[in-house]
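Researcher: Let's continue the batch. This sequence belongs to Acetyltransferase, and it's 210 residues. Same format as the previous ones, please.
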Amino acid sequence: MTTLSRQLPDFYEYHENETQYYLRQMKYPDDMALVHKWMHEPHVIPQWQLNKSETELKVYYEKMLADDHHRILIVGVNGEDVGYTEIYEGKRDRLGLYYDGDELDLGWHLLFGEKSVFGKGYLRPVMRLLSFYIFENAASAKIVGEPDHSVKPYAVVVEDMCYEAQRLIPMPEKTAMLYYCFRETFYAKFGHYLKDSKAFQHQQLAKAVS
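Model: Same format as before. Here are the structure tokens for Acetyltransferase:
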């Protein structure tokens, strides 16, 4: 049986302000050198704690890739791979131990590995990319999240992106804030972004074939 997360496409493209954002399926083992580099960046280590040898990372990702409630994707901006995301099924994830989830709930974890993208305003567009990727390709009524509640700047961003705080969750490595992003609320605020993206892609296609 194909699981909810495995039904998601291997590639998804989104445009905002004429900037291209994309998700592509991580290629194993081809992308391991890139992921290894990112996991050893000083800004990534504290949150992800995967600053391991390349061999240890391969073992870790072989297990991840064999787990059918995850999708591992590379995030790109204007043709350059800049980050990494994990899309997961909320009820089948460890998060399912802490909340009463719906079978169609999906969530994501995100890191920007390339420091060159910092300060360029990419976070919100990439969060819209992830949300549209899920809502456009799955019947999920909501997206879930569980970031560390102590990261206050992140809290401001997610709430602006229609992620609504629910309650604190005591997890072994952190106290997380459970967030829900409801499909109807998200599209009411950001649906026009997707229409603009599709219109831009049609324009680019028309230029390419003319």
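Researcher: Any comment?
Model: The mean pLDDT is 95.
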